[in-house]
Write a structure and sequence with these properties.
The chain is α/β, with parallel strands linked by helices. Helix content is 39%, strand content 17%. α1 links the parallel β1 and β2. Bound molecules: iron/sulfur cluster (SF4).
Amino acid sequence: MKVELMRGLGNFIGPPHFGSRILSTALMKDERLDVHFNIETVLNEVRGRSQLDSVDLGNIGNNRTALYKRWLDQLGSSFSLQKYTKIIPQSVKCDTILYSANNGMFDFPTISSLLNAGLKVVVGGPTVTIHKRNMRNVLASYGCKQLYNLTLVSGYVDLTTDLYSIIKNGRDFHIEDNDFSTFWDCENDFIDPYISVLMKLDHNNPGRYNLPVVFDSHCWWGKCTFCSYPHLNKSSFVLNTTPEKVANNIISSCEHYKTKKVHVHNDYFKFDSFNETVFEILNECGIKIKIYSGIHMLNNMKYVNKVNKYVRELFLGIESFDNFSLKYIRKGYTKIAIDKAFNNIMNTCNKKLDFNISLIMDLPVKYKSSVIENYKSLKELNRKLRNDKRFSVVLTPKLIEIGGHMRQTFIDNKHLKEANLSSEIVCGKYRFWKILDELNIQTPDIYKLRSTPLQRFDIDGNIVESDLDLLSEDLIKELL
Ligand code: SF4
């Protein structure tokens, strides 16, 4: 059976995903399937990014320009969908497309376009697991008229999954039985022939290739009101295997992709004897490890000592330094815990450690003045870390939004409300779209229309403008 594999967009340029190595190997090994990789979505992202690169933001201040340029670069994939989605089906040379979807709203226009062109589309990936109950309705709202040719496949593919039968039957399917130990037999990816070119095109991280791996998917905290990861199935990908097999797979994949950096994508990394053994072996080979961690864990000295021993980069979703905002999104800690976590690290670490810290802008605050206080706390921490040779810091600021991975549950209609499209004062991602409009920059309407304009109010009921409207050039500089 002849099929084509296509991957969803959304910061695609960069490393192949862990899941796509497994999917590629599973498809390549089945002799009943003749699979070709269709690179059109990847090319579209390249086209979209290069167009947004040339956007002139006028005279809005150096730091503001640099921050907006960063966001524009991330928007490349969504921009390319608006401009190029309609031509994607022209590149398909057979009747059936396997579409690996991992980015929600970025996947829907392409899937819709492929179906409307009369193709059979078999969709798998996290997007299906998260949206499967209402995915057909969502696709219809994106203009999809030929839903009868769609097959949704949820769950995880491994080397024992009978993909041929799933594709042939054409009925929705949930993969229940897995042998996760086979994950660690997969090293190649359909994207491999294009890797070196794509790495050069990655503006944010040229040449900084990190091999992505996952040991398990589960966040022990799982309470943050904006996060949809707790909806994903709790799974262990290291069941029935040995740390040595996992480490050997990672080492040979690192050799294959010519990198010495590994990014472990466990949602909120916990150490146990299994992954410590894997880390020991990787450390001996000089492979640098980055993990997602959190303030809760870094308040524990035993945990910090292990970070110092094994880890060279930490991803931290701090989100805010403001106690009111932190409570609002149920992060479960206060600024005191943030300070303690960084004191623990600064008092313990004797090796180089890089931080990648994410922040959510436009969260509800007690008073308007709290917005500035929040960024002053950020400035203080940022300076302290950057002045210390052991540490480097990259900040990832995001504007609050509804949809995608952000759940609606954090709207309380008191401190955060949906606004009208015509409201003068709005906050969140929608504010960024509006700013682009004000600057006469063409952006995909579909995304602006699907972003929810929000308004936030302080505890006295006064409206509070977006952080983007309240921050000075000096404080915006801290976000870069
Ligand atoms: S944001 Fe992070 S800590 Fe919070 S529930 Fe999601 S994965 Fe867990």
